[in-house]
């Protein structure tokens, strides 16, 4: 069981720029170890940029990002070592189309663990079992439904038993039933494995009920950080506009495309 007082991810006075433009600023955020946290907000507000700072893909202009008490390193070798403890579920799944589901899940194990082939195959079976895809081991990504492909990508993200899982828009392109399956699965893994899970999403209805912590990013910073129930009960005009999906309010609708895609 994870220590409820421990912090998995901490951002202190962080500013993040892309292309010479400030995307996020004044970020102060703590993600408790063993929690399931929803990072919500309108499209284009910087949610994926936040994940990029946690993985070390994007170096902050100022401030400090820590993962399990250690600052995210900038040296390539140290950064690679840290990333072994991160599972990342990409928005587009990232499955290699010419490999079977089992071969996709085996990739991280082959790259980072020297295991006898029978042990590796057994581990792959266990990961596929965990997401309900053992029967699909020999299928190729083109033969999977959207929900199955997302679960296959999740199995691969969990291959190295990372203590921290980052999910970037895991519900994109899924129907309501598949979305419910994915969120229930993430919650079960969070609870049974003690996995710290950060879910970036703009799907409020599907995400909030299974999370312990809700974070809302808008206007370049954290606008809310607290319990999902407190977010739902908020009367703040900006938060209500986002939660209720109303076109008029403090959050402006931008007709021009932005560099930040999430």
TrEMBL record:
Keywords assigned: ATP-binding, Nucleotide-binding, Transport
TM stretches of this protein: none
Membrane recorded as keyword: no
Organism domain of life: Bacteria
Gene3D superfamilies reported in the protein's UniProt record: P-loop containing nucleotide triphosphate hydrolases
Span of domain ABC transporter: 9-244
Entry's Gene Ontology molecular function annotations: ATP binding; ATP hydrolysis activity
Signal peptide: none
InterPro entries: AAA+_ATPase, ABC_transporter-like_ATP-bd, ABC_transporter-like_CS, P-loop_NTPase
Family annotation (SUPFAM superfamilies): P-loop containing nucleoside triphosphate hydrolases
SMART domains, alphabetized: AAA
Protein name from the UniProt record: ATP-binding cassette domain-containing protein
């Amino acid at each position: 069981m994870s220590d409820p007082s421990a912090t998995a991810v901490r951002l202190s006075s962080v500013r993040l720029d892309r292309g010479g433009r400030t995307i996020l600023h004044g970020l102060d955020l703590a993600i408790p170890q063993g929690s399931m946290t929803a990072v919500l907000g309108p499209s284009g507000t910087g949610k994926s940029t936040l994940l990029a700072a946690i993985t070390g893909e994007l170096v902050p202009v100022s401030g400090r990002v820590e993962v399990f008490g250690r600052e995210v390193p900038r040296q390539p070798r140290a950064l690679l070592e840290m990333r072994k403890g991160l599972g990342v579920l990409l928005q587009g799944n990232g499955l290699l189309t010419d490999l079977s589901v089992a071969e996709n899940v085996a990739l991280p194990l082959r790259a980072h663990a020297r295991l006898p082939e029978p042990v590796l195959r057994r581990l792959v079976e266990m990961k596929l079992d965990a997401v309900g895809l053992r029967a699909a081991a020999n299928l190729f990504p083109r033969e999977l439904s959207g929900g199955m492909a997302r679960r296959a990508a999740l199995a691969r993200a969990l291959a190295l038993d990372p203590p921290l899982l980052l999910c970037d828009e895991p519900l994109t392109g899924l129907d309501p039933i598949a979305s419910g399956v994915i969120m229930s699965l993430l919650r079960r893994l969070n609870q049974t494995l003690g996995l710290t899970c950060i879910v970036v999403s703009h799907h409020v209805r599907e995400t909030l009920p299974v999370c312990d912590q809700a974070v809302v990013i808008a206007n370049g910073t954290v606008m809310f950080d607290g319990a999902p129930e407190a977010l739902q009960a908020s009367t703040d005009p900006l938060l209500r506009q986002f939660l209720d999906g109303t076109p008029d309010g403090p959050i402006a609708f931008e007709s021009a495309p932005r560099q930040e895609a999430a």
